[in-house]
Each structure stands twice: as structure tokens, then as C-alpha cells.
Amino acid sequence: MKRYIRKNCSAFAWAAVCVLIGTVFATILQFFKGDVLDYAVAGNTYEAIRYALLLIGFILLEVLFYYLFSRLSARFHVSCVRGLKADLFCGILGRSFTQFKSMQHGEYIAKYANDAQLIGEMHFSMLPMLVQILGKVLMVAAALFWLDWRIALVTIFLLTMPLYVPKLIEKRLQRAQKDYIAAVEKNLAMVTDILSGFEIVKNFSIERSVMSRFAETNCYTAARDLHRKQLGNLGNLITTLMSYLSYFIVLAFAAFLVLRGDFSAGDFFVAVGMIDQLSYPIISLSGIIRQLVSIRPACHDMEDFIASSKGCALGSHCGKLNDGIRFDKACFSYDGEEPLIRDFSLVIKKGGRYLIKGPSGCGKTTAVNLLLRYHDLQSGRITIDGEPIGSFCDTYPLITVVRQEPVLFRDTLRNNLTMYQEIPDARLIGLLNSLGLSKYANADALDAMVAEGGANLSGGEKKRLCLARALMRDTEVLILDEPFNGLDKGMAERMRDVLVDEKRKGKTILLASHNEHDIDYICDRIYEIDGGRIIK
Questions:
Q1: What is the mean pLDDT of the segment spanning 389-408?
Q2: I need a surface site. Which of 17, 184, 291, 398 has the fewest CB within 10 A?
């Protein structure tokens, strides 16, 4: 978290300056209170009024500088959280596909929406307050020594005792905070999972079962939250009782000094004001320390999560295909299970069209994922233009893949097609017409919003729009997973024609399908998988 503080050190420093100036005014006006009382008791009206006016002026200056402090503190807090969320989101995007799939979507949402906000509230917002309280404690302590060293020593000794409370329950606070964060992540992961399968829930009429599952995780999360807050309340209770006890002891000692004649009425009034100024900040300081202690593990976990996003591994980017791609006796299995593909060998030459066919679960998608570097081989090798695929940090610049399940974002149709690149409308419209999507081939339709997941489009339209998006990217290699599934004969014909045109442009096309019907005649070669091997 230190780097976010360093990036926003200017706002933090100015906040510290403002609060220190405000504290100076707050401390000086305590003495003015005593002067007003002493002059009033002595019958000196002029001096009493003069000091009363000075008192009002210092109060206004105190309020002004504390207002500036609150504004700068808010800016520091918001800027730190913004930087943390930016790094967190960048860290999520920087994860490899395998890393990303190791967590549920809801866990990522919880980290972004809950954990980052919690760190902001319990860490970043507490730091300016810590400076404010420490500044006030030091300033008031110095003023007490100026007033009377005996009252200063007694006050500091007794009022600082509650600061030890957070240390006594530190481990319990950290464990409670960590349990709560884990419970929130689990609850959000479950909710996200259910919402993604909303149609299934309705279709199977399992609302009661879903609510039962939700109630279980929701109650557990609430219990963890209650335990965390009750532990904090216990710390507050102990701190408050100790503070008030110390306050009355100090007050009694100040009264004793008045009875001895060491203090005037004004001095006693100043001393009471100073003790008030010191007691509440120390109670607050205890709470701040407690929050900083309890959020520390969450801060470390967040830093580890961001650091664990490896992003691009060592190696060069693979963006051009000169000769071809070769699988040579490749073998791969998931988590030590029976190999899904074994002795897998095939050659994909530049500019060719190839079909990998076989039943579901035969290894077609796994072969594609290996080409995208989502997994590493157990044995054998994959080469691109003769170079081992492991020498490249990724193959994304070379390959565009269109999965069987189309993915569309809640954005304009134009942005879904261009992926935020500058592409002329004429090109978009021409491609949409060629894919039988003429009703979207106009400026108004391109600017229209696509619902989440493409809910306002048919299945066939979504599949063709995803193909159009892939063709807009114009990479050397295009991989299509079950491209004609769910399309009628006419639409399938249009897509085949488009693929034929892409071959003429020199694009290398790899199709994966369980059925070669009506595809074989456009392919240069068909590879059939059986038992994880190429048999044809």
C-alpha cells in the first residue's frame, strides 16, 4: 500500500499541514478561554471582551483549517482507492487464462467491490486521521507541560493506557477481519454463479433450493460481520471505560492543585479544556490503531494478489506466420489424469484451411488451448515457424479464436465489432451484409446497445457477429470452434463463402467440429481425433 501513499503524498502532506495549523489554533484558544474567565472574575471588562473576540477568531480559523484538512483527506483517500482499483483490475487482466480460471468471477468482484473499498476505509482514510490525532496529542501534551508539568505527566500516563487495548486483541481482530472478507468473497461468488445461470434456475423451478443455499452463505457472512463488529465494540468498551476513569483521576488531581492554590480558576478551566482535547483523541487513536491492525492481513493479501498476476512471461510476441504450425507427438493431461491428447501430430501450413473433427471430449478444444499457451505440454512439442511455442510469451497477436459460445459485451454494436479500434463504417457494413446481417448494416444499428450477453439478439446472430468481430481483427490465424452449430442451411452457406474469401486473402483457418458435414469441401485437409491421437 506504500506506493499509493507515495503517489498521493502531496495531498497527504497538505492535509497534515492543515491539521497541524488547525491544532495550533485549537490549543491556543484553550488558553484564551482561561484568560476570558480570569479577566471576567477580576472585573476587567475590556480585556475580557478583547480575549473573547480573539477566541472567536481562533475558533473560526480552527474550523477553516479542519475543513481544508477534511477535503484534502478525502482527496487522498479517493485517489489511493482509485489507484488500488486500477492496479487490481490491471492485475486481473494481466493474469494468464489458467490463473484467471482458478478463481470464480464472484471472487474477483468481491476483491474489486468489497476488499478494495474496505482497505480504503480502514487503511487509507485512517492515515490522515492518525496524523490529525497524533498532532493533537503532541500539541496538547506540550501545552499541558507549559501549563504545569505535574498535570501533564499524570494526564499523559493515565490517558495513554487505552492505547494498549488493540495490541491485546490484535490476533483476534486480524482473524475476524480475514474471516469476514473470505465469507464475503464466497457469498458473492455464489450469487454471481446463480445469476449467470438464471434461465436454468427458472426453467428447473429451483428457486427454493437456490434461496436455501443463499441463506446459508448469507447467514454465515452476517455472522462473520457481527463477530468482527462485536470484537471492535468490545475494544471500544474497554478503551472508553479506561479513558473515563483516567479522565476523572486527572480532573481530581487538577482540583487538588486548585485547592492547594497552585492553580487559578482560569488555569483549572484551561486544564479541563486540555484534558478534554486529549482524552477524546486518545480514544479515537485506539480505534484507528485497531482498524489499521485488523486490516493489515487484507492489505498484504491484496498486494500478493496483484503481484501474483504474472502477465506476459519471458519471451517474444508471436505476431507473424511465415511457414506454419506443427504439433509433434504432443501429450497433455489435466492434473495428472489420463492424457487427453497423446502422440498428437499435425501440420498447419500458412494460408491453408484445416478441420479437426471428433466427438465431444476428444481433445479438440484442448489442442486449441495448447496453441494459445493456456497449458504446457507434458511431452512432445509445438512449434511456430520452427520455433518452440514456449519461446513466445503469448500467441494472441497471431491468433483470433471464436468459441462455440458467443461472447458479447453490454456496449454498442460498433464497439462489440471493432473492440474499440478505429475501423471505417463502410468495412463494417460490407462484412455484416456478407454474413446475412443486413438489418445491422447501418449507422443507427451500429450505435444501438447490445444487451448483456447479447440477450437482445438471436443465437445465430450472436455467432455471426462474433465471427465478424474476429474477421475485423485480421490476424494471420483464425480458429473457429463449431462455427456452423445452430445455423440454418442458408446462413451456414454465407459463412462458408466468407471463409473461402478469407483463404483467398491468405488467412490460415483452423476449424474444430464434431461433424464435417458441408465443411469438408472448403478444407485443404481434415484431421480426425480418436483416443487423443490423429488417426486420419
A1: 84
A2: 17
